[in-house]
Automatic annotation (TrEMBL):
Segments passing through the bilayer: none
Pfam families hit by this protein: Pyridox_ox_2
Protein name as catalogued: Flavin-nucleotide-binding protein
InterPro entries given in the database record: Pyridox_Oxase-rel, Split_barrel_FMN-bd
Amino acid sequence: MGKSLVYPKRESNTMNRYKHRGTYDLGPIHSIVNSAPVLHVSFAPSPDDPFPAILPMIGQMGSFDYPSSGLGDPLDCYLHGYVSSRIMNLARASNGEGLPVCIAATHVDGLILSLTPNSHSYNYRSAVLHGYATLVTGEEEKIWAMKMITNAVVPQRWEHTRIPPDGAEMQSTTILKVRIVDGSGKIRDGGVSDEKKDTGKSEVTEKVWTGVVPVWQTFGEPLPDKLNKVKEVPEHITSYIATANARNQQYAVDAVKIPLPKEEVH
């Protein structure tokens, strides 16, 4: 088995705190990004504005030139947005490599409830990417990216809609392609981590409950639109809900690394 590909360590992505939780491996970082329902994208709005702008966007890591690439391979980040939004206009007007952006993704997998407030924490997965954003202008690549992002919301959703997008939809939608230059990820899992000065005090341990509350995203029962004419919820939706709910819960429970009764995992 070959060595995992990693992002280069630069000043912008090198971790200084809790280094043991960090990773520069492409696979885990891209997985965190692709499983996040929302990505937060920051950029400098103008030289005269001292505040960075941050937008919630949807996006996916992928490679148009090498579509068979896996999560552990070099990938671009494709972001979906409206044609006249500020970030799109800035990317359109950018010169050289493109608009510098930072992309962040975070999952909370558990609440760490400790003996003292200072020892409380989360089980979490986070990733940060830096890169240069340019507009996708080729129609083939644009449709490919739109399909990839749509199917990231619900698998096979693109194929179960009215496609392809018409001219007006193509004109109003813009896809940003971010060429990633560096990235890092951080993962915290496990249980409570209290200091010995507290764990050895019975007057504290006998009155304070400690443990982990697993946290996971749950998809509810599909509710039909008032104009919906399809009687049954399609299988591609119901199967995704069942699979995703089970997977999300299992990950949150496994992240605690404390064996739980099987009946507690649904």
